[in-house]
Amino acid sequence: DQQVKQNSPSLSVQEGRISILNCDYTNSMFDYFLWYKKYPAEGPTFLISISSIKDKNEDGRFTVFLNKSAKHLSLHIVPSQPGDSAVYFCAASKEFSGNTGKLIFGQGTTLQVKP
Amino acid sequence: DSGVTQTPKHLITATGQRVTLRCSPRSGDLSVYWYQQSLDQGLQFLIQYYNGEERAKGNILERFSAQQFPDLHSELNLSSLELGDSALYFCASSSTPGQGGELFFGEGSRLTVL
């Protein structure tokens, strides 16, 4: 049962353009969502998060949008840079409903930003 | 550098064998999580410990076990290994579970079962 899904295994964009990575979830109890970035031979690193009480959170070039009714979130990177090329994981948790803090991850989307 | 240390980085072993993966969390973090990443798969949650006690269990096989020691380091034991156990095993830590959700990951231990 894949509770968090990233249906696009890969995405290729041109440097300077917008990258949009999508994520869907099925469990309505999820109330906190995160994006992690992973480079080869490294562990995932936290990028940005959003609580379910918000619909948008912005941090520099990165913005996460949450559509609770559609159970969908997206990560926008503007402008995209070659250094953004990595695997991006969407993750979800139940922060405010007695959860332990564990994260449920999607399968990841490999982003390639071409110079 | 996340501050989470995992050893060994690479491990090659044969089917039927037993291995132990070790994780040292960030200084001060009480919670340790283990995740498995198989080929083309996302990160699958295995198990979590908080201050020495098991806190949550995910899709962890009965052949696998873990523990967290008084010094807060954790070990993941994998026994009766099968080819399908070949994967990247990540350890992550956090200071307080359920607050903020951010986990800090180690670089992973790549296990190859031949």
Report what the structure shows.
The complex is a heterodimer of chains A (115) and B (114). By secondary structure, chain A is mainly beta. Chain A has strands at 4-5, 10-14, 19-25, 32-38, 45-51, 56-59, 62-67, 72-77, 86-93, 104-105, 109-114. In chain A, the strands form 2 sheets. In chain A, strands 2, 4, 5, 9, 10 and 11 form a 6-stranded mixed sheet that branches. A 5-stranded antiparallel sheet of chain A has the order 1-3-8-7-6, with no helix packed on it. In chain A, a hairpin with a 2-residue loop joins strand 6 and strand 7. The model of chain B has no long low-confidence stretch (mean pLDDT 92). Chain A binds chain B through residues 4, 6, 9, 32, 34, 36, 41-46, 49, 89, 91, 93, 95, 98-108, and chain B through 2, 4, 31, 33, 35, 40-45, 48, 50, 55-56, 58, 90, 92, 94, 96-108.
Index terms:
heterodimer; A: 115 residues; mainly beta; six-stranded mixed beta sheet; B: four-stranded antiparallel beta sheet; 0% helix; globular
Order of helices and strands of chain A: EEEEEEEEEEE
Q: How many beta-strand runs of chain A?
A: 11
Q: How much helical structure, as a percent, in the residues of chain B?
A: under 10%
Envelope shape of chain B: globular
**Main beta sheet strand tally, sense and closure of chain A:** 6 strands, mixed
Given the helix and strand composition of chain A, which structural class is it? Answer: mainly beta
Q: Helix- and strand-based class of chain B?
A: mainly beta
Query: What oligomeric state do these chains adopt?
Result: heterodimer
Overall mean confidence score, pLDDT of chain B: 92
Low-confidence stretches of chain A: none
Distance between the termini of chain B: 31 Å
Q: Which value, in Å, is the CA radius of gyration of chain A?
A: 14 Å
Poorly predicted tracts of residues of chain B: none
- C-alpha Rg of chain B, in Å? 13 Å
Strand content of chain A: over 45%
Counted beta strands of chain B: 11
